[in-house]
Amino acid sequence: MEYFVQQLINGITLGSIYGLIAIGYTMVYGIIGMINFAHGDIFMVGAFLALIAFLVLVALGVSAIPLALFLMLLVSMALTALYGWTVERIAYRPLRHSFRLAPLISAIGMSIVLQNYVQVAQGARVKPLPPLVHGGYTLFEGNDFAVRLSNIQIIVVITTLVLMAGFSLLVARTRLGRNMRACEQDLKMAALVGIDVDRTISLTFVIGAALAAVAGLMFLLYYGVIDFFIGFLAGVKAFTAAVLGGIGSLPGAMIGGILIGLIETMWSAYFSIEYKDVAAFAILIIVLIFLPTGILGRPEVEKV
Amino acid sequence: MSERAPVRSDGVPAMLRHDVFDAVKDAALAALIALGLFVLLIGIRTEQGPTGALVITTRFGALAAVIAAVFAASLIRSLVWQRAAPAIGRWLPISARTAAAKAISPYLAAAFLVLALLVPVLFYTNRYLLDLAILIVTYTMLGFGLNIVVGLAGLLDLGYVAFYAVGAYSYALIAQNFGLSFWACLPLAGIFAAFAGILLGFPVLRLRGDYLAIVTLGFGEIIRLVLLNWQSLTGGPNGVSGIPRPSFFGLPFNSTGSGFAATFGLHYSPTHRVVFLYYVILALALVTNWVTLRLRRLPIGRAWEALREDEVACRALGVNTTNTKLTAFAMGAMFGGFAGAFFATRQGFISPESFTFGESALVLAIVVLGGMGSQLGVAVAAAVMLGGFELFREFDQYRMLVFGAAMVAIVIYRPRGLVATRRPSVSLRERSDTAAPIVGGTRTETPA
């Protein structure tokens, strides 16, 4: 029982990170109907930017951890957002009217570019970071097993909840959110009623990338080690989360993320750790076959 | 970044100055963005210090160089390229280019074939080039196989390497455990891979477009992870080694009395085997090409192309989309399996390392750059890509970077591929002009 609760806590933490990445997929898919294959690598870039920002801050003499964390978050979000904007501008916008598979192929190319760019710039070896956030609480103790909730887990989950709430407000209440929802329904019609479609799409990528940067920072803090290849698996799992929750739906992305996090953690805890990624991929396939619209998604109408 | 600066063909000096000013402004903006992008990732390098903790070193020289390059590229793009492109277009219109490409493509194909046949004769002494040629033809064959799925049937498959892996492991394991020869295993490898294709095909029948791509990607990764973790069968990360080499009608390529060299009264040379392998893969690739070309004329091939154009219309016309998709997957997978068996016998050693997503991306890039559906295009693209890889071997760490960038650039600037245009094998006469742009073209590149 204690073991199970512990896995539940770990799974929700991991799931929050996936959920944050999944939002980027789900928003982009909702608006322009493409899988932003490079989004996982944007997340990886965000983690690297946070790491380097931290090292620079330490070199500059910023030693208070909360301040350093806050500055890391700001720098990483801002610069990763710039990456998101640039990728959209260079690789996707020229293809808006191209053939169906063109944006996906371009996104695969962009994913390769980002991975190898970081590898060339920062080396292929893993980058360790000593734990910045210590401590935690022992919730309750069983016979031989203590359920622990660490501070970093609390930070990850709370940050995710706050961002989700803020972002839902943005989509529901602001002008930008309204434009985004309009673009999601019909790009051409949105353009006809005077919405700057290009700008809305750009901002979607910017917001998605900023959230991925937060996820990158959380990943860095939680695992304490990153390399240039973390984006691929995290990206596929986050996409699975987006599909599981119902692509295009924001709460769906979060629910999907947490489910994927839980499934992965439970699978590793009770079955085999070697096959945990197989489990994630298998779930993706099963969901797409039996529940193609996901948990909260709308059925897709086939237009001829 | 320079789309606001309109292209002016008249050379009024005042206008020109305005243009230059705009271009410089745009370039400065681009440089500023580049500064934001690169300041941390290029300007600062992290390395593990002697204590294991990360230490940083600054690289502002490299940062300045990259930003200067972005500035210069942006300037050149808006000042030179945007003027030159319309001029080139006027001088050699796209219609003329298409016509020229169409006129020379049969000769090009013949020339390519003759060159391919003569490679071992021309470069007999150059082992390095022979190996490269084998590699190119192997990827050409993989490209032909994937072309059936992606180019003809229009199903984007990101996990093609799975079939390659199934073929390679089938051959390696059957040969090791049952002692069958390469020639007996080759069809078996193809059959196993085709089954894998059907296995993948069944669940994804209902999926379309992007979802299909992601599921095939997942399938490819599942196969790789299983190969990596099923240690008792596949040897896990250590792979399978000591895979038997192929023989020439039972004559092994070694220096013994019963070997190939001794039987034909030749001096033994290890090159014999390389040349033999080259002709084996060339024959396999040509068979794949021939089969594909024939299939395109059969009802099933027509159905594939119809499926690519419009699935709903296809169903309305009574085409069995289930069977059509499954055969496309199975055929593509089978040729991938053949290529995999060849890969195993050539290397003598295989491990899951050789079957990563990167391989799938490479083969897909070959098909896409070749023009999706064009056989000649695939061959040219394979030669260009792998040849380019070899040229950049000294800049080892940069070549994947260049590869990814080239993929993006070609999809943007040459969406129909480097060489060819993709057209349906049949279409109504009066629609033949409009069919091509609907198929895969952009609005800007409509053949006249």
Explain this structure.
The complex is a heterodimer of chains A (304) and B (448). Chain A is mainly alpha-helical and 304 residues long. Chain A has a single domain, classed as Orthogonal Bundle (ABC transporter involved in vitamin B12 uptake, BtuC), CATH 1.10.3470. Chain A is 73% helix and 5% strand. In chain A, a hairpin with a 4-residue loop joins strand 2 and strand 3 (146-150). In chain A, helix 10 crosses helix 11. Helices cover 69% and strands 3% of the residues of chain B. In chain B, strand 1 (44-48) and strand 2 (54-58) form a beta hairpin. Chain B folds into two domains: 13-91, no CATH class; 112-440, ABC transporter involved in vitamin B12 uptake, BtuC (Orthogonal Bundle). By secondary structure, chain B is mainly alpha-helical.
Summed up, the domain count of chain A is 1
**What distance lies between the first and last C-alpha atoms of chain A, to the nearest angstrom?**
53 Å
Helix % of chain B is 55-70%
Can you tell me the CATH architecture of chain A? Answer: Orthogonal Bundle
| Helix-strand makeup class of chain A | mainly alpha
- Which residues of chain A sit in consecutive blocks of at least 5 with pLDDT less than 50? none
Number of helices in the DSSP assignment of chain A: 11
The interface involving the most residues is between: A-B, 71 and 64 residues
Could you report the average pLDDT of chain B, rounded to the nearest whole number? 80
What is the string of helix and strand elements of chain A? Answer: HHHHEEEHHHHEHHH
As for the CATH topology of the largest domain in chain B, it is ABC transporter involved in vitamin B12 uptake, BtuC
- Output the structural class of chain B: mainly alpha
β-strand percent of chain B reads under 5%
CATH class of chain A: Mainly Alpha
Tags for this model:
A: 304 residues; mainly alpha; ABC transporter involved in vitamin B12 uptake, BtuC; two-stranded antiparallel sheet; B: 448 residues; 2 domains; 17 helices; 4 strands; disordered N terminus; disordered C terminus
